[in-house]
Amino acid sequence: xxxxxxxxxxxxxxSVILGPYISQLLGDWxxxxxxxxxxxxxxxxxxxTTKTPGMAALFMNMNRNKRGxxxxxxxxxxxxxxxxxVKKSDVVIHNxxxxxxxxxxxxxxxxxxxxxxxxxxxxxxxxxxxxYRDRPAYDDLIQGISGMADLIGRYHNADPRYVPTAQADKxxxxxxxxxxxxxxxxxxxxxxxxxxxVPMFETLASYILVxxxxxxxxxxxxxxxxxxxQMAPTRRPFKTRDGFLCVMPYTDRHWKAFFEYAGHPELVTxxxxxxxxxxxxxxxxxxxxxxxxxxxxxxxxxxxxxxTLDIPFAPVNTVDDLLNDPHLQEVGFFAEYDHPTEGRLRRxxxxxxxxxxxxxxxxxxxxxxxxxxxxxxxLEFNDEAIQALLDAxxxxxxx
Length: 399
Fold this sequence. Notes:
The chain is α/β, with parallel strands linked by helices. The protein folds into two domains: 9-207 and 329-392, Rossmann fold; 238-315, formyl-coa transferase, domain 3. The protein is built from 17 helices and eleven strands. The protein has helices at 20-28, 57-62, 78-87, 98-104, 108-114, 139-145, 148-155, 167-190, 200-212, 228-231, 252-261, 276-281, 283-294, 299-309, 326-330, 372-378, 383-392, and strands at 9-12, 32-37, 66-70, 91-94, 119-124, 195-199, 238-239, 244-247, 313-314, 334-339, 343-348. The longest helix has 24 residues, at 167-190. It starts with 8 loop residues before the first strand and ends in a 7-residue tail after the last helix. The model has no long low-confidence stretch (mean pLDDT 94).
């Protein structure tokens, strides 16, 4: 392993997306990741597309580069295994709420007694200091309470609706990843670990309010929250003569070049459109005019013209189109590998590139408990002790 996180050991006790996505990124950068699962396994093992029970595509996408061990923290002997792992690890990730975490022995205060250098990252729905702290949370719920569903509904002039991706889970995972890296850096300076808590609600609310905290940024408020341009119903991929196209004239130069090419130079000096402030104030009229002009030519004609004029644009890809996108092919975005049981698979490579410590792919996602015996032997459990753990139901391995 030669990546930027080579030598860092991570224990991933999380499930679903929030948590496993964090450790997937850490593993992609060559951290050693051990995935700790209960006997029932991660829920995503059997969600959506799957060829072999327990090895669904969603699970394999997020759990590559991880060895797997089964550990039932309610059974005798499991705490001894966990503590031995913690002693040799740098980071523990889990998504237990405070009360279950304390009951199962994975709270920071407990683990720090075993290893004062340990960094724990707890990914939860709501911060532990607030009144929602004991509520269960899933991506859909956080999209609702954070304002995301309302924004999408208002944008479509419809009822609230969800973004069709795990927005809260993945945004929370990226926030947690940043916090873990910051804590690792601080530990290099002080030698001390610490507890990190990353709540989905606060993270997604913070994410949304980057640009939507407008009027209420002032006290007293200058108006309601919401960035006008992004909330305009006319902000969407625009119709051309034969399809759709994403076009984003942004600066004065872009708009001047576009209006002149489209044969309407008078719009350059139109008081509604002659500055960024006036364009924002008249955004719906501006985008309506933009689509009217785009609809007069084909998508191909506009692609050539916009590239020549150096006006920002992009085609409207489907998710399937990404597999054949020429740019993604040139940067090596997708890679194929052979999984020992699932055959030839495709994976996404790390979008972040490192010039001096390029990470490398290690191996595909594990079957439930695939490395249980291997890891227990590394922890110096003898055959008799391992059998006792198996008999107690504290661990398991594939038959």
